[in-house]
Design goal:
The complex is a heterodimer of chains A (185) and B (509). Chain A is mainly α and 185 residues long. Chain A has 6 helices and no strands. Chain A is elongated and about 65 Å long. In chain B, strand 1, helix 1 and strand 2 form a beta-alpha-beta unit. The chains are: A mainly alpha (185), B alpha/beta (509).
Chain lengths: 185, 509
Amino acid sequence: MINLTKKIFLTLILICIFMGPIFTLHNTNIVGSNYNLILIQDLYIWNESSNWSYLDDEGIIETVIIFKNENVNITILFLSILWFAFSVIWSVVSDNLKVYKPGTSNKFIFLWVIVFCIINSASALGCWYFMSQINEGIDMMGKDEFTTLFILSIVTTSLYFYLSSLFITSKAMRPSVPLANRILR
Amino acid sequence: MTTNLFLGLGGTGSKAVENFIHLCAAGLGPNKLWMGMVDQDSANGNVAKTKTAIDTYIELRKDLKNQGKNFIPDDIDFLKTQISYSKNNYCWCPLEGTNPSLHELFSYDLMNEKLQDVADVLFDPKEEFQLPLDEGFRARPSIGAAAMLSRIQEKDKFWKDIFNAIEKAKSGENVKIFLSSSIFGGTGAAGFPSIARVLRRFAEQEGLSDNLKIGGCLMLPYFSFPKPSEEEESLVGYSDSFVEQSKGALDYYHRVFGVEEQHIFSQLYIVGWSPLIPLGYFEKGGNNQINPPLIPELYGALAAAKFFQEDEGENGIFHIANNNETEVQWSDIPEINEIDNFVRDKISQLVRMSIANKEIYQPALLQDWKKFQHETWFKKLFTKMGIRPDQKDEFSATLSLLNDHSSSFLKWTADMLMFSDFEGLRQSLIQAELFASKTEKEGSFYVSLEENIPKHKLKSFTNLINGVTSSSLSNIFYDLNDTKNNTGASGLGAFVTELYQASNIKGSK
């Protein structure tokens, strides 16, 4: 139980490390006036004549803010929950395989790869749904924006899940995480 | 400092030595111990088996208590006792090098007529006088006592070790000697009172009696075997006669050690069992006589453990009896100190470790170590201890000894539990059927260890010890991976130490 609590705590810290900057970048004017909105507009909103002055229009600003609140932030929340859930699932599943022999845990790499593929597919699917299929997201994203979104979601999810598995997988099960035993000496 | 000596007399005594070696491996023995056996039938299979057990123990301990190489710290109870014995003379044979009959031993032909008449009254001239004594005194203590007392010499290497140990009391050391034998055999029954008297008198002559404590365990009849054939019947003891013989012997012991010479024994344990445990086969002696250990003998071995453990032995008469005469449970096993379930925990820990070692780790360690060199347990317990994956051959001898020891301990446990288990007695101590099986062939029973324990049986590892749900093999593997490895062990000792600790009945400490 203590072990699982520790792992949950570690997972939450890792999610904060990843999602903290992403959330801040999308919600705070760190650099200057409406920088976060420009970023959102630039990354996710399709517009043929995309330029900085575009955001001078109060109406457009309003739309981007709604998109940020109802699509971007919901997607960030969804990804956080998804990552947390899959980390816990991996931790519980890998510990319940009851490996008791040396040289056998590396046989479960396939299981890690399956979970890795599922979490990536789920996050890509979730991003597509929450960014483009509900509220203001409908009709706001183009093909290029989708590509950027998928790449971003797959890169961050992959990085997160790999790091998370490195730290929360029991030492006995570490060989089931690719290259883990070589990285953590 | 205390000098401890354990002497097994006769066939039962040599089994007692073997039993005590296994208890020492489990951490129930003293820190240091000298062991020896007395048996006229030194070719007896039990003696040879005990010798193998002593040698395996000593060699393994030497390999794993080697400071700077493979080292298990002293606070780890596995192989705690440093055992020694008289080299090349581990078993004293009173009539060694000859195959005399009583006729020759007494030089009957040189006796005058009157003495011959007395001898004829005491011993049957046709049978007992002609009895070859190379295979023991065949349940005739009167013959053995006479032969033995005439042969104990201070110059003999075996006895020299014992008398030298008693002389250590001159420097203020305490000396504890424990004798174990049966009351119903030949050599043991003859040697038990005779040797105890010789030792006590030697100490008295040297003025060392206060520092010498003699403990003893006498086994009353506790097993039976089929009646021997008519031609063998006259030469050997058989179990029906054991009870009659024991009655007389007990009366003698009560008179001598209970009244007249009370001071000889500091502690005297008498162990009996009813109903008798049927052995199912009979061997009159020689190298085929390898009797399995039985549960009553565990009581005898624990008596010795208690005797050696106590600084100041309690005086008095102690009783222990089973709660239920048809079943033996852990609550029926006597404790040797104040710690609750100490005996159960120590024996169980070594049984669990032996199974884990024999079934899981030895097969893995026989493979190429490069296969798992990147696994955490290997990195922590081997690589960090300076053992490289390419050094497998250097450690194979020690690993093989460890494997032999695990097998030998499991076989001893299985033999004891399975041979003691019959219609009249059930044991609820350890589920031995998880790692061993008992088969019947031509009317005789055999117990053998499972070569590879099937997976479904390994799953029951947590319930191996009756009355306790302990950690699984998976928990042990996880513990080895999570170890902090700060016990002070080195070399291969680190792996053995951690495996032993992880096999604790309550899980890793």
